[in-house]
Amino acid sequence: MKQSEIKELSVAELQEKLGETKKSYSEMKMAHAISPLENPIQLRSARRTVARIATELTKRELQ
């Protein structure tokens, strides 16, 4: 997810998306531990998406 897409979402949508993305990331991480993923770069992109969403939520709380 790009930063421009994240900025367009509401706070409720961001929280929902954060939960989904964290769950997806943890599932990928466990699957990668058992047998290597075909594309391990997915882990990095999912982790960065979680960080982007969390950063946007924190930014909105401070305003």
Explain the layout of strands and helices:
Blueprint: H1 3-8, H2 11-34, H3 41-62
Question: What can you see in these coordinates?
Answer:
Helices cover 83% and strands 0% of the residues. The chain has 63 residues and is mainly alpha-helical. It is built from three helices and no strands. The chain has helices at 3-8, 11-34, 41-62. The chain has one domain (3-58). This is Large ribosomal subunit protein uL29. It comes from Bizionia echini.
According to DSSP, the number of beta strands is: 0
Shape: elongated
- Quaternary status of these chains? single chain
Structural class: mainly alpha
State the end-to-end CA separation: 23 Å
Overall mean confidence score, pLDDT:
95
**What percentage of the residues does DSSP assign to strands (E)?**
under 5%
- Could you spell the SSE succession in H and E letters? HHH
Largest sheet: none
Please bin the fraction of helical residues: over 70%
Instruction: Tell me the count of domains.
Output: 1
Based on CA atoms alone, the radius of gyration comes out at 13 Å
The total of helices stands at 3
Low-confidence stretches: none
